[in-house]
Specification:
The structure holds two protein chains of two kinds. Chain A is of the alpha/beta class. Chain A has 16 helices and 18 strands. Chain B has four domains: 36 residues, no CATH class; 91 residues, Translation factors (Elongation Factor Tu (Ef-tu), domain 3, Beta Barrel); 123 residues, 3-Layer(aba) Sandwich (Rossmann fold); 98 residues, Beta-grasp domain (Ubiquitin-like (UB roll)), CATH 3.10.20.30. The chains are: A alpha/beta, B alpha/beta.
């Protein structure tokens, strides 16, 4: 006798879509979440008149009704696609290198290419060449993998074979010369957490293609609206949810999952577990490491914990235009050397960092109270330097480092500081606190080519255990939302084979 | 299917890398518990405390000096509170108290408790708790603290009664550490004997030119020579004598907010730099604006929980209190409608929610409420998901 068919641990993107899929398919599911609200990263918090978006900047893969993207299909199947108010962003981003580059790239191929050619007229040929490659490469990728070609060969997919394992910097250098142009085309590295020299071209091409073809999106109510809608689906389909209830352990007998211990040491018997907890914690804390195959621990040991972020959430008491913020997504750089920018991620100091500045009100004027604006500034940071800040200096350190960023932002957007009504600073330790992730990592492990699905299987070696979330694939909203659905499908497939 | 990957240029090299990385990799089993340890030294879920000393401040208020049983107190920002978790005659409840000691010293936290007529918790603490008693609290929390990123150096702090506690912590920090700030404290009380920390505030204002202390008493006794009356904008203008302020912070009873907040703009400070501590609601919620007149204070309602249990609730009592009185423990921190820990889903029925409750947009859509600041005004059905 079991209490539930499936226990899902963690109500992040992956846990929510897993639990929703399972509940909709009629399985008895229990979702455990240690925090008091659903979402993990996909959440919001209130300060004064503002409800701050925590993590979603540009949702990828959604597409338009005429041209639906892969994520829309996933959300439609979960019955949350149509009830949310999606807001399409017209531009990819504005890239800013003070004194040298101020360039806005539209979110469509023609416009993007035209904007680049206009700013870099001497590189027209290279720009065309690069975009041709990104598109042709991605089409090959889709034909080979999404269409599940049984025989993938270099003859059929020459571009894929040539470029799949190259890094982005190499490919950019093949087509382009001006470091400013290369910068303009690679600032999205911040969304993955590795600089072009370390970022696989496959990942970069997929990201650029996806945003150009399926458009970047925001939505009314922010990412919490997705989480709340998924939770509602789980409850409506008879799923059980316990908030403020962490899992303490996963019980295994004869190599198979048999139950989950809650924080109060209550054993819940189940046939399967979907873990939306980091794979590090799943294998070293929830499971008895002795029950985990040494090869799995070795595999984990070869991956490195990815970056967290130093994030500043600002509520302004004026329209964004009043301080000169005209784009929703802005990458503010300090130089063209992205290896240097990445190296800065390991420093405590914030004085010379690449920043992402997002203003949601330019996409959704109702996002903040009338006449107000919400601005989120993200600086990717590994947690190590923060781990050695003495607790007594924590708050002072946090304010000093935020001050350096606000000073820079204020010089770029005149009057910014003067209009601050609310401001909240989150460090890697804050992200660690709310996500429970090692290193406060926001994208899971560092996403090198060696850690991609081409080389590593994220299947759990423990029978009945399934992984969902950034740590078992790639980070970001689209991959994590999808990961839960995939995990749920695997559960349903396997449970169907095992008698109750 | 033959493995195409073997033909990918660079594939074998990466496989070699992976071999090396696994061989010389990290043993993450050694990091067990690390994330929790790192978080807990800043934000512990529970702090085990002992009362080291009880200091009588006024005829109606005592300061409890709390030390950590394990010797470690996490850091806090001046103005933040802890929530004390108590078991009073079998009722598990809690109350938030602002820490009034300086964040710069790490030996103890001071909290000041004032007697409230019929106050379950304040009277329990004042009448039953002696030095040596063991207590348990949350980690420090709250958003009413000085923010150097935009609040500026010259501040007016407005306190009423026991609303002095967050400012006491700030003033102690600024004066002890010699911080580059300029503070005017205007502190209103009914009687001069009600003034908590009077001697210390006076003494600090004499020693530190950057701290100015202006007590105001409503009903002065014979020996009192200070400022008399109720704090108003004219009085503040006279006290400030033209000094330009960067920001204002205010903490006191609801009546003080109502009397002062609409007029503070006259002091030349934009609204964005006027901050108040959370509204705690008037003593009797049934007198609050918008309370349905047909619901009399004596009414009783029934609350259906998850379709499994029915408990009673009295009009004028928060849903949280009703749950606690029936022995149902709900996670809770601020008890002021801000932190959202005590949220529950309202399935049917009506509640009254006072101004100042911070609900998310999606909470409104799906009927989630903060039980600490939701007052039943009809029979209810709720979903508790903890």
């Amino acid at each position: 006798m079991t209490d539930y068919d499936v226990v899902v641990i963690g109500a992040g993107n992956g846990g929510l879509t897993a639990a929703a899929t399972l509940a909709q398919k009629g399985l008895q599911v229990l979702l455990l979440e240690k925090h008091n609200i659903p979402g993990g990263c996909a959440t919001s918090f209130c300060r004064g008149r503002f409800e701050f978006e925590v993590a979603l900047h540009q949702l990828s893969g959604l597409g338009t009704p005429e041209k639906p993207g892969p994520l829309l299909n996933v959300l439609d199947e979960l019955k949350v696609g149509t009830e949310l108010n999606w807001l399409e962003m017209q531009n990819l981003y504005r890239v800013i290198l003070p004194g040298e580059l101020y360039l806005t790239l539209p979110a469509n191929r023609e416009g993007c290419v035209a904007a680049l050619k206009n700013r870099f007229p001497e590189e027209q040929e290279g720009i065309d060449g690069y975009f041709d490659l990104v598109y042709a490469f991605f089409y090959e990728l889709m034909r080979a993998f999404y269409m599940k070609d049984p025989e993938i060969t270099a003859e059929k997919y020459p571009l894929y074979f040539k470029y799949a394992l190259k890094n982005t910097a190499e490919v950019l250098a093949e087509f382009l010369h001006d470091p400013l142009l290369k910068l303009a085309l690679s600032v999205y590295w911040c969304y993955i957490g590795l600089p072009p020299s370390r970022l696989s071209f496959t990942d970069m091409a997929a990201l650029l293609f996806s945003y150009l073809e399926f458009k970047p999106f925001h939505l009314q109510g922010g990412s919490q609206a997705i989480s709340a809608a998924l939770l509602d689906q789980i409850l409506q389909h008879g799923g059980s949810v316990r908030f403020n209830c962490a899992a303490k352990g996963i019980q295994v007998a004869d190599g198979r999952v048999t139950g989950v211990y809650t924080q109060d040491d209550v054993l819940i018997k189940t046939r399967a577990v979907v873990s939306n907890v980091s794979s590090l914690d799943t294998y070293t804390e929830l499971l008895d490491p002795a029950a985990v195959q040494p090869a799995k621990l070795q595999e984990l040991g070869s991956s490195t914990v990815g970056p967290s972020a130093f994030t500043i959430y600002v509520g302004l008491d004026c329209d964004p235009q009043e301080v000169g913020i005209t784009e929703a997504t802005n990458f503010i750089c300090t130089g063209t050397d992205m290896d240097y920018a990445f190296a800065r991620c390991r420093q405590l100091d914030t004085g010379d960092d690449a920043l992402l500045l997002t203003c949601y009100d330019l996409v959704d004027p109702s996002f903040s109270p009338a006449g107000c604006a919400q601005v989120v500034i993200v600086d990717l940071k590994y947690s190590e330097p923060w781990e050695s800040v003495p607790p007594q200096q924590y708050y002072q350190t946090k304010f000093d480092l935020a001050e350096k960023i606000i000073k820079r932002v204020d010089s770029l957007y005149r009057g910014f500081r003067e209009h601050i009504e609310e401001i909240e600073v989150a460090t890697p330790l804050t992200h660690m606190r709310y996500l429970g992730h090692p290193g406060g990592a926001i994208y899971g492990f560092d996403q090198y080519a060696k850690d991609s699905s081409l080389f590593v299987s994220h299947r759990s070696p423990v029978e009945g255990l399934y992984m969902a979330g950034a740590w078992a694939g790639s980070g970001g909203f689209q991959p994590t939302l999808n990961s839960g659905v995939q995990a749920a499908r695997a559960v349903i497939r396997d449970l169907g084979r095992i008698a109750r | 299917m033959s493995d195409f990957r073997n033909n990918l240029p660079g594939y074998q090299e990466i496989c070699q890398e992976i071999k090396a990385c696994r061989k010389y990799g990290i043993d993450y089993t050694m990091d067990r518990g690390k994330t929790t340890r790192l978080v807990e030294r800043l934000h512990p879920r529970r702090v085990k405390l002992r009362v080291s000393e009880i200091i009588t401040k006024t005829p109606t208020a005592d300061t409890f000096r709390l030390v950590a049983r394990d010797g470690y107190l996490p850091p806090f920002q001046a103005g933040q509170y802890i929530n004390l978790y108590l078991d009073i005659h079998g009722i598990k409840t809690s109350r938030p108290y602002t820490i009034s000691s300086s964040p710069r010293q790490t030996a103890y936290w001071d909290i000041t408790v004032r007697r409230v007529p019929d106050g379950l918790v304040s009277n329990y603490l004042l009448d039953n708790v002696l030095s040596g008693f063991e207590l348990e609290s949350s980690g420090p929390a709250g958003n009413f603290y000085y923010n150097p990123l935009f609040q500026g150096k010259t501040q007016l702090l407005l306190a009423g009664g026991s609303g002095i506690t967050p400012f006491m912590s700030m003033i102690r920090e600024v004066t002890d550490a010699g911080l580059d700030r300029n503070i005017h404290l205007v502190y209103g009380n009914r009687l001069s004997t009600d003034i908590i920390f009077h001697a210390e505030l006076w003494e600090r204002s004499l020693r530190h030119f950057s701290f100015h202390y202006h007590p105001v008493v409503e009903h002065p006794e014979k020996h009192y020579h200070g400022r008399v009356g109720i704090i108003n904008v004219d009085m503040l203008q006279e006290i400030l004598a033209g000094e330009m302020l960067d920001s204002i912070m205010i903490c006191g009873p609801q009546a003080m907010y109502e009397a002062l907040l609409p007029h503070l703009w006259q002091l030349g400070v934009p609204e964005r730099r006027i901050r108040h501590e959370l509204f705690t609601g008037p003593g009797d919620i049934t007198h609050a604006p918008g309370w349905p007149p047909e619901v009399s204070p004596g009414s009783t309602f029934s609350i259906d929980i998850n379709g499994r249990q029915i408990i009673p609730a009295q009009a004028g009592q928060s849903l949280l209190t009703a749950l606690e009185n029936s022995g149902i423990v709900v996670p809770v921190l601020c008890r002021s409608g801000e932190c959202s820990q005590c949220r529950v889903q309202l399935l049917s029925g009506q509640v009254y929610q006072p101004a100042g409750v911070l609900l998310r947009e999606s909470d409104r859509k799906y009927g989630y409420i903060h039980s600490c600041q939701a007052y039943p005004v009809s029979d209810l059905a709720i979903r508790l998901s903890s």
